[in-house]
Each structure stands twice: as structure tokens, then as C-alpha cells.
């Protein structure tokens, strides 16, 4: 990948960006309170009553499948004394608070108050859980506290057009890991994913040999909502092709995508590795991630289960490699120097674009 001379000497963010607690608080309120935040794949809540607890920034939320097949998102606290209503994932016919058994139906309406005589003046008509905006895009669930944002499909239409041949909405959600703790700032996890400079050097046990840095290619530039680059496969590692809609470039590429602020995708001809980030502390991030597989691949392969398991093992190794690197960057950043580091002018250009997005939001 050639370097544009005019873009040389790009500087990295200062160390304090990853260690300053006041900035971290501003990010949670200034970004996660005002954006669409990816929560999960819709396949995580398949049937009516299936739910999944998550966080939007610092705020506990949950999504739940409705009887009509839609998905709704709610603030995850009881109207009585603020108890967190659900944890993890599961299924329920109604939501019952574990503290005093106040009860809500799947649509969030308050339908039961225990010891009702003690609340003689309480009119429960119309009372219900705080509902958040919730949209599905290509099989991914997005949630926002704000109800006045442009639709996800509208802001991500250029990206949907760019990856339309894959048909992500119909992918088989085979694996989901709801808790994967990274010992690093959430921005470091995002930045690590959207730069291809590290692939050969940090992924020697996984994707480094098959998708070396030297083959990396840039994608669209300067989009306010996402970034795309490509890690093509080496000629001896080319995947089987079962989706005939893919063009010649797509058949050999791994699309690597970051959707601001917290969604990460790596799209292979046969699967997508997806990740969503939940900031927990200045140096701690939960990354819910999973693997979803193309129906073309699952129908065309002789042993799709064995293939899916081999990809799970490969991506698990890649994830562990990334986690180790992110932890070391976080630890190095605690020194506190005021002198900023450096960015590769092309291979790390999307790190810079992500930083520009952060600056706009803050």
C-alpha cells in the first residue's frame, strides 16, 4: 500500500486520551447518549419473550422480542425502586422484578403491583418501562436513547450498498460470546480492529499468514459514520466460494469495517466476525462478539459444522492475540508522556478518521 507524501507524519492521540477518567465520562455522555449503539445480532432474541441485557455507555438496557416478531429496547430498571430487571440472556412470558415482583408485559407496560393497597394513590394507567429507539440493520440490533436521530438504514446506506452481495440479514448466527473482557480502553479495541498495520506482526498464530499486511487495501474514505479496509487472502489461502453473487474482488477479500461508535465487522466470503463494545471503565471493555455464517456456505459445504468450528477456533486465537496487544498499549499509555506517537499514513488512516469522529461528537 503506497503512502501519500502529503499525509506523512500523522500523529497518534496522546496517552491521556486512553487514561483520563474525565474524558472517559465525557465519551459516555457525549457519544453513547447521543448515538445509535449496536447491541447484538437479532438472532440473539429469536422467539417472543427472548431477551438480552446490555449497556449503552453506562446505562443498563435490554432488548426483547415481541409477540408480533418485532424487537423493542427498554431501560433496564424497575419503576418502583430502580432494581435491574434482567441480566444476561433468557426467555420470559413477562418481566418480573426480583426485588418486589412488580410485573411488566413484553411491551414494557406495568401490569402488576404487589401489595397494591400500599400504593392507594398510585395510578398505574399508562405506566411502563422507558422505551429506547430500536432498529434492525442487516440483522444487527441498534439502540439509542434519542428518538430524533436519522434512521440507521439511512446513515449506513452507502455501507449497505458496498456489502450488498453478502446478504448479511440472512446469516446463520452460530456463535455468540456475551462477555469477553479486554484490559484496555474501548477506543484502543476499536482502533486495533480498523488498522491493518499490525496483522502480520501481531497475528502470527491466526490470520497473519493468510491475510498479510502487505496485501492490505484501503476502502472508502472520510465517511462520518464508518470505515472500510480490506485484508485480502494470499493466493494459497483463498476461501471456497459458495455465494455466486460475490465479484472477483469480494471472493478474495476480508472486509474490515468499523461503524461508529462501537460496532466492528470482518466479512469473509463465508462468514462475518462481529463485535460490539461496552465501555466498563477507563481500562476495561466488554466485547460481545460472535460468528455468523452465509447460508450459501452452510448449504454448499460438505461439512458445514466442522467448518464453522474451525473458524471459531481461528477467530478465538486472533481475539486472544488482539487482547494481549491492547492490554500492552493500555499499560504503556499509563506512563503519561505529553508527546504524541505516530500513525502510518495509509495503514492507520482509519485510526485518524475514528479520532476525528470522536472530536466531532465531543
Topology at a glance:
Blueprint: E1 10-11, H1 21-32, E2 37-41, E3 50-56, E4 59-65, E5 71-75, E6 89-91, E7 95-96, E8 103-104, E9 110-112, E10 131-137, E11 140-144, H2 152-155, H3 157-162, E12 172-177, E13 181-182, H4 186-194, H5 199-202, E14 217-218, E15 226-230, E16 255-259, E17 263-267, E18 271-281, E19 284-293, H6 295-300, H7 304-333, E20 342-343, H8 349-361
Antiparallel strand pairs: 1-20, 2-11, 3-4, 3-6, 4-5, 5-10, 7-8, 8-9, 10-11, 12-19, 13-19, 14-15, 15-16, 16-17, 17-18, 18-19
Helix pairs in contact: 4-7
Description:
- There is one protein chain.
- By secondary structure, this protein is an alpha+beta fold.
- It is 23% helix and 27% strand.
- It has 8 helices and 20 strands.
- The strands form 4 sheets. Strands 12, 13, 14, 15, 16, 17, 18 and 19 form an 8-stranded antiparallel sheet that branches. A 7-stranded antiparallel sheet has the order 2-11-10-5-4-3-6, with no helix packed on it. A 3-stranded antiparallel sheet has the order 7-8-9, with no helix packed on it.
- The longest helix is centred in the C-terminal third of the chain and has 30 residues, at 304-333.
- The relative contact order is 0.17.
- The mean pLDDT is 96.
